Amino acid sequence: MAKLLKSIISIIAVLTLLSCSTNAGSGGNSVQKLHGDEKNTFTIENSMQTTKREISVRMLTGDQKITFTDEYSIKTIERAINGANRIPGIVDVVFPDFRVIAGEEIYDLWLREVSGSIMNLKDTHTVYTLTPASAKELYELLEPIIDKQ
């Protein structure tokens, strides 16, 4: 029953995101890493403090956290972020499900089994929707912490 309620709330949240958007501006087709006026696609780089690439994902409704260091998981997350589509206009958002920390980039993530949205905390006026395939892949990666709720 709790999972059904969470799914219903998530569907309402996504519909709210879509209904609050406007048709102003079309923007890019990927979440962008912002460096001044440059627009670069998102990749995880080795930082000076660590010897390997890693992405940490934490549920914001509890203390569950998972850190990915394997190439498959990191590439899956990079593909999901880079393949996300910008929602035009300004959107109202609900509390996110996850916080994704990848090097210096931090994202909020709203995720269901076949849908999701992501927002770079450096640009909280822009939300991107994940493709259904990417949402499914991310959901499968995060199942170990999703199942613990």
From TrEMBL:
Coiled coil: none annotated. Residues 1-24 form the signal peptide. InterPro entries: YhfM-like_dom. The keyword Cell cycle does not apply. Residues 55-143 form the YhfM-like domain. The lineage of its organism: Bacteria, Bacillati, Bacillota, Bacilli, Bacillales. This is YhfM-like domain-containing protein. Keywords: Signal. It comes from the Bacteria.
